[in-house]
Design a protein that fits this description.
It comes from Zosterops hypoxanthus. Residues 1-261 form the UDENN domain. With 261 residues, this protein is an alpha+beta fold. It folds into three domains: 1-108 and 133-157, no CATH class; 162-229, no CATH class; 230-260, no CATH class. It contains eight helices and six strands; from the N terminus they run αβββαααβααββαα. It has a four-stranded antiparallel beta sheet. A two-stranded antiparallel ribbon has the order 5-6.
Length: 261
Amino acid sequence: VAGENFNQSPLRRTFKSKVLAHYPQNIEWNPFDQDAVNMLCMPKGLSFRTQVDNRDPQLHSFIITREDGSRTYGFVLTFYEEVTSKQICTAMQTLYQMHNAEQYSSVCASSSCSMDSLASSIDEGDATSLAKLQHYNSYDISRDTLYVSKCICLITPLPFMQACKKFLIQLYKAVTSQQPPPLPLESYIHNILYEVPLPPPGRSLKFYGVYEPIICQRPGPSELPLSDYPLREVFELLGLENLVQVFTCVLLEMQILLYSQ
């Protein structure tokens, strides 16, 4: 388990994640920082869900800034896949049995009763709320399907957010589709790693994803730096007044810290 969150029900806890694979194995000018990438891909750790939970894929980005000031950009698609290991499913069931026993003990203690007289002495309101909580946060290996979070990530020297987003979504669709993609998955990964070059300054580049072509543009030397992040999302997240205040702070060269979950 990642962090001390044992009071949470097992499906609300987070667990330690790890990098399963990365390609290519080594790049001289851009060494792979496994710990940093792992933490930035899954900042809250590994999480589990069941069929009743929302499991829509989520996309986020991050920046790794090195001591010399150089930057690399990461774009991450997080999704949930079914757990096929019976050992993990059994472990989740055991965690729930332990958690439920602790919950009963806690309610029993607050009601000043013994475990023998729990059914008759427990307050009706406590029993109802506990039953609702356990119904919402429950896992039964014979009834529920367990899912675990997983990430696919692209690390690039420039922030081509839209192009990376489209590629990751197409790759995810190919992984989860009933029909196999036109070519093996390895072909698309090899293509974007070894055959798609960075567009020259001031030029656009069109390359093929899994299902549709993808275009990325790179500003010229006399143009503003690349900013491929949609402004609409900034307005939606911060609101007009907050955005004006942040922009004013930028113009006044103040230090700005944005904090978010």
